Amino acid sequence: MRNKKIMIADDDPGIVDAVEMLLEFEGYDVATTVSGATVFQLDQLPDLLLLDIWMSGEDGRDICKQLKAQDTTSSLPIIMISASRDIKSSAMEAGADDFLAKPFEMDELLKKIEALIG
């Protein structure tokens, strides 16, 4: 069985490093980017995308909407993350499969990932 691949798109290197280490420890293959545009240039889709809402110059909600609108990426599970707790509804309206407010507990993140890609 191949390992599930998760992409982390977040412009906060501290979050990227911490989450990447945790997910690799849990047996996931992890790819990271600090630019949302990179998500559209993937040769191979991840099994799940962990997407920050506010990245430098880009809105993760727009990226999410674009991914959900394309046939090739519409079924890609996306968990949106943000330091702002009051924008969960806009993340879900953009098509996110789940939402997590920063700072978050790693156990909570793992449960959400497991629920989406088991």
From TrEMBL:
It comes from the Bacteria. The keyword 4Fe-4S does not apply. Keywords: Phosphoprotein. Residues 5-117 form the Response regulatory domain. The modification 4-aspartylphosphate is found at D52. The keyword Phosphoprotein applies. One of its GO terms (biological process) is phosphorelay signal transduction system. Gene3D superfamilies: 3.40.50.2300. This is Response regulator transcription factor. It comes from Mucilaginibacter pallidiroseus.
